Amino acid sequence: MTTEQYAIEGLKNVLYIDLTSQSYYVVERRDLYEKYIGGVGVATSLMLEEYKEGTGPLDPEMPVILSTGPLSGVYPTCTKVVALFRSPLNGELGESYAGGHLAMSMRYSGYETIVIKGVSQYPVYVAIHDDKVTFRDASSIWNLSSAIDVGKILREIEPGAGRRSIIRIGPAGERGVTYASVNVDTYRHFGRLGLGAVFGAKKLKAILISGNRELKSPEHSAYRKTFNMLYDLIVKTGLTEKYHNLGTSENILVLNELKGLPTRNLQATSFEGAESISGELFAKKYLLRRVSCAGCPIGCVHIAMLKRAFSKAHEYEALNISYDFELIYALGSNLGVADPEAVLELIDACEKAGVDIISMGVVLAWATEMQERGKISTEETLGLKLSWGDKAAYLRAIDLVVQAPNDFYAALGKGVVYASKKYKGDDFAVQLGGLEIPGYHTGLGNIVGLAVGFRHSHLDNAGYAADQITFNRPLSDEEIVDLIIEEEDRRSILNCMVPCLFGRNVYTYENVILALKSIGIDRTDDDLKALAKDVFRKKYELKKKFGFKFENLTLPKRFFETATTTGMIEKKRVRRAIEIYREKRGV
Ligand code: SF4
């Protein structure tokens, strides 16, 4: 197969699934792939085509789009799938990335992108095996208490082992918790912004996808050479070593030392219990093994083993629980939990419920402070006393948020913005753009990056990395904004390829050009940079259609009350930096 044939026979197929009529069809969209290469570029264009003005996040016509890239399954660490939807959490652009086996399975099945529309009359799961798409009654797995069990059951009853992926929701998605996640295979997720609630509203319990299509490597020496070069960069240099070694949980002690680790609802940025929930401690006492997404030689997914007694007769169960920095921050330092086993149990409860752990941690931290301040009563919490570090209370609270037995817990299930407006505590609701914050309070770059990011995530533009530079050399606010824009553009390109961003320093512009060329896609540096601007414009067009306005961005007081790694930050400085960003971006 020549590289030209490879490019032609490769990316083109979009599978459209209609849950209302239980039908499907496939369209070749070579036009979109030629223009946008794949991933988020193709998904954004499709969303603009599909979106009908005024459609709400949970309306039947609102599509969910899953998209892979041209390098998926072809080059190492190109493992992710982007999900595009309208977020039920903040009403804005829902964009989330997951690894596992999904990208590989989609390409094995011959569908580079999947568009899901409509709503089923009853719970269904969709089984995609090569060119056959079947809609199966999921009533018997609806209402199960654990998203993990759903995966176990589907693995038993569906074919395709070894070449398949199973994505599914838990009780939080079924019940409309607006930050419900979609669990992907084992230990991976579409975590942020509530895709799980969108699945729930569509009565879509799971999608299983497998295929037998051969993903042929182009017989071209350039491909082999480029593959080996990228592989060596990943495994033989220090570029990705951190992720395999301690993993991102290495950041706990680092950020704690730098006073940038949000603690007790961001009332502080260092935690006296950091040592006992550090990556080092987890590695020493609980780390069982590391696993990888399909096609990744890094293996960053750290699995802890937790032995838990379940009867007085010394009976134990062994739980395998994956952990990383964000989870330990959200359910550890931010809830004042210094017991590592308590952190693991809280992670496990969220995994089973199928919720975004960062959002859940921030919501519970906010509720704890509200109760401390006497702004909510034990009548509202149904007798529960939330206090920092109290594992039992937080385990119960997670369950109550999912079950929503009263208005208070239902409000918590709609996110910290909704709850803080209803119960008047928005000064210390630590969110930006309606998304609960990740585990950094490093300075101006972080706050501005989260505020202006497409989806208000640290993964949009890594604003915290601009702050890191200022530890060593001063930067003007304008320079910080420039770094944010530069990184945002770089990630827009990468997200068209959909590699794991842990490999971002391997996939430089230069290496992306080489990788694309070896599979028959010719792009220059200028082409990629122009594409980044185009993707930016398209995503902003979509954001505006979904109602985003810079004027509506709120900056909660708490960000300016707690010192960051780089000192106290003033609100007016953030506002000014956002204006600089807008001017430079023309938005
Ligand atoms: S680095 Fe981790 S998350 Fe990224 S592809 Fe590899 S195993 Fe998956």
> Uncertain spans, ≥5 residues at pLDDT below 50?
none
How far apart the termini lie comes to: 45 Å
CATH class of the largest domain: Alpha Beta
Number of DSSP helical runs? 25
Bound molecules: iron/sulfur cluster
Task: Give a structural overview.
This protein has 587 residues and is of the alpha+beta class. The protein folds into two domains: 1-220 and 442-587, Aldehyde Ferredoxin Oxidoreductase,  A, domain 1 (4-Layer Sandwich), CATH 3.60.9; 240-432, Aldehyde Ferredoxin Oxidoreductase Protein, subunit A, domain 2 (Orthogonal Bundle), CATH 1.10.569. The protein has a six-stranded mixed sheet with strand order 2-1-6-3-4-5. The chain has a six-stranded mixed sheet with strand order 8-7-12-9-10-11, with helices on both faces. A three-stranded antiparallel sheet has the order 13-14-15. A hairpin with a 6-residue loop joins strand 4 (81-86) and strand 5 (93-98). The chain is globular, with a radius of gyration of 23 Å. The two termini are 45 Å apart. 56% of the residues are buried. The model has no long low-confidence stretch (mean pLDDT 95). It binds iron/sulfur cluster. Iron/sulfur cluster is lined by residues 77, 79, 99, 243, 292-293, 296, 298-301, 500, 502. Iron/sulfur cluster (SF4) binds at residues 77, 79, 99, 243, 292-293, 296, 298-301, 500, 502.
